[in-house]
């Protein structure tokens, strides 16, 4: 076992411990919004999605919500409350999916699972997928949108798409878009050395013809704030339709990493949900 891998394993364990310290009390205190129906769909291999719908939800479109956790931690429960609020505000159903965590799989394995979820949604009649994710889930939301819209990207990553569907928008909350391949978490990305180099820097594969209208969200205390600012600038330079929100802390409302997920009812969280809703609805 290499020194770099041993260091990554140490960082992974510490990261999970820190996340559990924060998320356990947060999840225990969450209150879900009323008027949102929750159902479950099996994706396969022990994985499933929760679907959040409200009265009059658009039958042809759906959000695909992908949780964060540095690719190594978490489950769909982390984003459930946010997803239910998003469904109620947007009038579009939300599919909140699980995926196998690294290092039990690699990035290609995660993408294959997520694309299987996309195919399942397409087979149920959905024509447009709006991807949304936070932190590492934002990375997965962006690359999933690109894979849906680009056959070349799918071929490069060796993933398939069976359904007739397109990515209508990508919505990235406190996201990451690059990571070195020899440090955590990138060291787990490509166990077999089969993936293209752009998986370590998605700016290399961004194209105005395949990247849908995008929302990027960050905050003044987000440790990925500069990454988000950089990604916004890159997209602007490439001519991609993109909107950016950099929330400012006020009193007890501190704009730490993924604040819209943990606090969707804050004014700033509501604004993020409104931005994502408008992006998906073409406003």
Structural notes for this entry:
The protein is of the alpha/beta class and 283 residues long. It has a single domain, classed as Alpha/Beta hydrolase fold, catalytic domain (Rossmann fold), CATH 3.40.50. The chain is 38% helix and 19% strand. The protein is built from eight helices and eight strands; from the N terminus they run αβββαβαβααββαβαα. The chain has helices at 3-29, 80-90, 107-123, 136-149, 151-157, 225-237, 259-262, 267-280, and strands spanning 37-44, 47-53, 61-66, 93-97, 128-134, 166-173, 214-219, 242-247. The chain has an eight-stranded mixed β-sheet with strand order 1-2-4-3-5-6-7-8, sandwiched between helices. Helix 2 (80-90) links the parallel strand 3 (61-66) and strand 4. Helix 3 (107-123) crosses helix 4 (136-149) and helix 4 packs across helix 5. It is globular. The N and C termini lie far apart (51 Å). The mean pLDDT is 96.
In short:
With 283 residues, the protein is α/β, with parallel strands linked by helices.
Report strand order across the widest sheet.
1-2-4-3-5-6-7-8
Per the principal axes of the C-alpha atoms, what is the gross shape? globular
Alpha-carbon distance between the termini?
51 Å
Predict the CATH topology. Answer: Rossmann fold
Mean pLDDT comes to 96
Low-pLDDT sequence parts: none
CATH superfamily: Alpha/Beta hydrolase fold, catalytic domain
CATH class: Alpha Beta
Radius of gyration: 17 Å
């Amino acid at each position: 076992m290499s020194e770099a891998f041993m260091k990554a394993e140490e960082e992974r364990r510490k990261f999970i411990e820190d996340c559990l310290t924060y998320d356990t009390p947060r999840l225990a205190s969450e209150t879900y919004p009323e008027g949102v129906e929750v159902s479950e769909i099996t994706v396969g291999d022990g994985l499933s999605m929760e679907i959040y719908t409200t009265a009059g939800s658009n039958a042809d479109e759906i959000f695909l919500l992908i949780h964060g956790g540095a690719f190594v931690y978490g489950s769909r429960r982390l984003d459930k409350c946010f997803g239910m609020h998003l469904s109620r505000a947007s009038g579009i159903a939300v599919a909140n999916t699980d995926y196998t965590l690294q290092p039990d799989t690699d990035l290609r394995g995660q993408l294959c699972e997520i694309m299987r979820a996309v195919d399942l949604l397409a087979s149920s009649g959905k024509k447009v997928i709006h991807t949304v994710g936070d932190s590492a889930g934002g990375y997965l939301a962006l690359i999933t949108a690109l894979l849906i819209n680009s056959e070349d990207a799918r071929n490069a990553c060796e993933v398939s798409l069976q359904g007739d569907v397109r990515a209508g928008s990508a919505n990235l909350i406190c996201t990451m878009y690059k990571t070195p391949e020899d440090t955590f978490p990138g060291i787990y990305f490509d166990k077999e050395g089969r993936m293209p180099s752009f998986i370590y820097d998605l700016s290399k594969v961004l194209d105005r013809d395949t990247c849908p209208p995008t929302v990027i969200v960050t905050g003044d205390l987000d440790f990925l704030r500069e990454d988000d600012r950089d990604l916004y600038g890159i997209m602007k330079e490439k001519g991609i339709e993109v909107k950016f929100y950099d929330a400012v802390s006020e009193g007890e409302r501190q704009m730490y990493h993924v604040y819209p997920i943990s606090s969707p009812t804050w004014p700033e969280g509501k604004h993020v949900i409104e931005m994502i809703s408008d992006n998906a609805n073409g406003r």
